[in-house]
Design brief:
Blueprint lengths: L1 E2 H8 L3 H9 L6 E2 L5 E3 L1 H15 L4 H9 L2 H35 L16 H10 L2
Antiparallel strand pairs: 1-3, 2-3
Helix pairs in contact: 3-4
Length: about 130
């Protein structure tokens, strides 16, 4: 078993972060007779998973859920997260294209930004421009 100082050094996390994970029931560490936090190998595996999930962009409440799921359920959540991230990437790519277009040609005139100039709001015209990228 390892004490918090060793786990802090091993993980790169502060003692306070490790204490917080314990308080939030992400890690179920044991206590020594002197009330020191003790980390078993299983706790270190859980900490590894927590750090991986955090790096993937999951919030702690979702990580708590993931830790309690079986492999099939966790795989489904990972697939959903991946799909969401890919959608975000597509949106960011469109925004990059819009920025590139504006850098190249300048801000488009609102009257030529839509085929139906008189019936669409500026926001609708911008969304149409964005959609057509």
């Amino acid at each position: 078993m390892k004490r918090i100082k060793e786990v802090s050094k091993l993980s790169g996390l502060s003692r306070r972060t490790l204490q917080y994970y314990d308080e939030q029931k992400l890690l179920q560490v044991t206590r020594s007779a002197e009330n020191y936090r003790l980390y078993r190998d299983e706790d270190l595996q859980t900490l590894w998973k927590i750090l991986l999930y955090k790096e993937m962009g999951f919030r702690l409440d979702k990580i708590r859920s993931l830790l309690s799921m079986d492999d099939r359920q966790a795989q489904n959540i990972l697939q959903e997260h991946l799909a969401g991230m890919k959608a975000e990437i597509r949106e960011l790519n469109k925004k990059c294209q819009l920025i590139g277009m504006i850098k190249e040609s300048g801000i488009p005139d609102p009257d030529i930004a839509s085929n139906e100039q008189n019936t669409k709001t500026y926001r609708e015209r911008i969304r149409e421009l964005f959609k057509n990228l």
